Amino acid sequence: AAPGFGADNPWTLSARNLQAQILGRLGRNAEGLERIDDVVGRLMVISGADHTDTLSSRQVQADLLSALGRAHEARAIYVELAEQLSRHPRHGPTSELALNVQQSLSHLLFAEGRSGEAEPIVRNVVSAWELAGDAPSRYELMAGRLLLARVLVDLGHDDEATGVLNKLLGSPAYDNEVDADGGVVHAVHGLLLEIESRRTQSNEGANV
Hints:
By secondary structure, the chain is an all-alpha fold. It contains 10 helices and no strands. The N and C termini lie far apart (73 Å).
């Protein structure tokens, strides 16, 4: 490290947090987790469990655990963070960090086949994102709506899921994904096809 920037320096810890996130995006989750574990351990001692840097680093930690298939550990961290943030004097349950944590938790629950538990969480998150001043252009709102639609389809609420997807299709954030040929586009069309297929099968069954 450069002179004056030791392992416990806030700039060093911030850089290592970013390193961990980048490693996760590259699929090198085990390496990312090793780095963020060290960052979280140091921040717990230096700044305390309720410091924003600690809280945001723990979310990265949970995200990497989830990516590694360690769902039980990830879920425990998300639940603890959501509780901490709900009573945090500087954040609260509708802060950006809190909403990201809740969205990650609901995504994990959905991936575990627990859509019934995920549904009220992601529904509240989407409602909160919609109140943001820059809501139409927010990637987080688009991702939240996509997750909500997936959960609703899984629960058999196809009509409501279609309405959620229609809102998503009309957003500037979605237009950006179209321009980039992003994965969201393919996911949306896949869900719409699934809904249409189920409706066709239902109509055919009714006509037999």
